[in-house]
Each structure stands twice: as C-alpha cells, then as structure tokens.
User: Fold MGAT4 conserved region domain-containing protein from Patiria miniata.
Amino acid sequence: MGIKAWLCLQKRWLWLTVACVIVVVIAARNGLELGDTRGIVAQGYSNLPWMPEVLVRYTTEQTRTALDGTWSIDTGIDPTKVPGLTSDMGCMNLPNLDRDKALVLGHRRKERGFLTIGITTVERINASYLYQTLNSLIVNTNATERSQMSIVVFACDFKESARQEARDIVFRFPKHLESGFLQLIEAPRSFYPPLKNLKRTFDNPDERVYWRSKENIDNVFLFAYSVSMSDYYLQLDDDFTTVPGYVSTIRRFIALNRAEHWILLDISDKGTGKLFRDWDLLHVARYLVQFYQEQPVDFLFSALMQLHLQRRHFVVKPHIFKHLGNVSSLELKNKGRHVHH
Assistant:
C-alpha cells in the first residue's frame, strides 16, 4: 500500500471515529439516564475541528478516566491536572457540600420545586441593586408560583462588611425567608482555591483575572448548593428587574424547546440568565472548577454549548429581564467612564 493510500485510509478511520463518538453523545443525551455522571463522559469528541483547545484537554481527560476506571464520582476532576487545585479544597468535593453551614437566612424546603433562581451578589462601590432585583422577582410572582420556586442569594464577598450588607437587604423580606421561598447563603474561604498566581489569558490585567476566576468559583458554590432543589436552575446577577408573568414565560419557553437539544437556555439577552436542567448542575459546576482561571464564565458557558453539540442559542423573546444601573462589581470597568451612583 502506498503512503498516500495509507494516509487516506487513516483519515477515513479518524472521521469515522468522530462520527461514532457524536452518535454516542447524542444517544447519551437523549436515551440514557442523564443523572448518571458516567454517561456524560461519552462526550470525548476532542477531534472535532471547532472544539476549543481548552475543551480538548477536558474531554480527553474525562474520557481517559472513564475508560481506565479512575473516574471519581466525588469530583470528576484530577487535581494534579489543574494548577492551584488540591484535593482538600471544598470546590473539589462538591457532592459533600455542607448546605446547613452554608445557609445563613431562611430554610431549605423539603419538596422539590419547579425553579431555583440563584443570584450571586457582590459589593459595588457606592451602589447596590440587590433589593430592587429581589423585590422585582417577588412582586412579579403569585402565591402559587412562589410555592414552586426558590430564590437563593449567595453573598460571595470575602469582606464581612459586604456580607452583612447582603444579610441586611435579604432580611427585609421576612415573610419569604420564613416560607423558604428566599434563602441567603455564604461560603467558607476554604471552598476556594488560593486565587493567586492565576493564569493570564486574553491579555487581561491581574485584577480582572482575579475577578473572573473568583466569579467562576462563586457560581460553582451556588450551583452545588442548589442541586436537587428544583427541576430547573436559573443563574442570574444581582442587578436585574423583571416583568409580571415571568415564571409563566419561562415555563412556556421550556415547553417550546422540550424537543430541542440543549444544555442551557438563554432567559436573558445579556450574559446572565442561563437556565439549566437540575441533572446537569453538578456536571457544569465541575466543568467550571476545571477551567476557573482559563476564561470568564460567559465564555465557558459558550464553550459548554459546543461541548454538548448545542449549535445555537435559544433566547426568550420578548426579553423579560432588564439590566439595572452601570456600576460594575469589577472596579476596573468603572474607571475611565462617568458612573452615576
């Protein structure tokens, strides 16, 4: 056999392998029990030409650990493969997250709901939008909707003064804290990696790399806390208002796309407002841990869509969330522009 013929044959085998893996992935997503974490590693299709390099490493490693039997149900992550991570960190042991210690205000409901809205809140200089966000989410629901959903606010600042500010705001809704509709959580510092000597990508300054890396781990904690609370989870920032009937709109949008293939739905036209199925939460959290210092969270979510063969965004229209204010939690964004407090 000539060299050209041999190379042609090898190329055909390569693409045949890729095609087979894609079939396995689709079958795993649509026909297998998705609550089984091992089913997810069928997505080891790292040869696809559009796969970002960071995901090639992820899928290759996850497929290898599944095949050789070293997959860890506790983390799904090999800490030796991720700089800055060690096995004793809280973010490496997500299924064993102590939810009772995390809960500061409110209580967890015993009954599984339809929707959990997770909100990360951080300090802004001379500005806060958390009360407006919570008030809008509450007043635009009825009693029946509130009985089938929960709002979890994560005060994710390390500073005690910023955490206390969040507690004071959430405490202004005692009725909803008592019912379990509203909860406030905090994370121990031990949950986080050191957040020092982080990888600089996109030529970002150190301040921005720190901010975006911590934001990824903030979402990991909130995702892990919210597992099994509801059928769906909505990730939302602390600076949005909504409209009457937004819960019904979300229900209709999910039903409209029930037959579509998706890992996330866009409930907002902004970077926030991503909706996930509950059974995917732990998988997504582990994925964010794996690449917490590589890319911003919105970039990682876009790459996650590619990883799951979701080729387009499914966006709610008309939009049901409106952004508030212009003061960012990253002070670097506020510099060089006039900011109204």
Notes: Strands lie at 103-105, 113-121, 149-155, 182-185, 230-237, 240-242, 265-266, 274-277, 321-323. The mean pLDDT is 79. DSSP finds 13 helices and nine strands in the chain.
